């Protein structure tokens, strides 16, 4: 059987792709014919495994090259150097998926500048810088309209707010606003789209039973799976009419009122 080679310009940087949701997104895109740059901060072994698994997933679509790239997204200079490093290894990049995210607990009672700055740098500043650099590089190579796209991972809690994880929530609210501003400022070369999952993966803060119960709390009877989110990301990357908007992929959880973050349910206020 003749294999179709990876199309020119189908190279995507996925941040935080060594583990969890980012890994699922990377594998889904590799299977769909994208060359994937797997970003990681500290999880090198997991990132290299994702690269190997992307190569296996891409075999049916013609293969392509995939590679891992280390970067601390809280470091502006390192973040600005990330896309040039990816392009030196894999060729021109046309898409960035900003999945990596800092998620540390604070609230109104213990909020401080340091926590806000940590979340702002990783969750808001880095995605904006990567969009800026991608636009600059598209411009430099004379790309045409809609040649690039940035997908920002958000959170259903922006449409269903609760006061837990205050700095995290503020950083994601700023990123959601940046979707609109960047879509305006960087058009027509670049599209900017948000994808907002509901409760998708468990964490050390939830038992298996608590996660399963919280996952069922939606009008559709379940929230998002990693595969649901990855499919929405791929749709956002490939649908040329989407920009300046957000796809909520949460089983309708944003339609329900939750007094606490999912990870804090059952914890005294």
Walkthrough of the structure:
The chain has 269 residues and is of the alpha/beta class. The chain has a single domain, classed as NAD(P)-binding Rossmann-like Domain (Rossmann fold), CATH 3.40.50.720. Helices cover 41% and strands 14% of the residues. Strands 3-2-1-4-5-6-7 form a seven-stranded parallel beta sheet, sandwiched between helices. α5 links the parallel β5 and β6. α1 runs parallel beside α2, α3 runs parallel beside α4 and α4 runs parallel beside α5. The radius of gyration is 18 Å and the shape is globular.
How do the helices and strands line up, and which of them pair or pack?
Blueprint: E1 11-14, H1 20-31, E2 35-40, H2 44-57, E3 67-70, H3 76-90, E4 95-98, H4 113-140, E5 148-153, H5 166-186, E6 190-197, H6 208-215, H7 226-238, E7 245-249
Parallel strand pairs: 1-2, 1-4, 2-3, 4-5, 5-6, 6-7
Helix pairs in contact: 1-2, 1-7, 3-4, 4-5
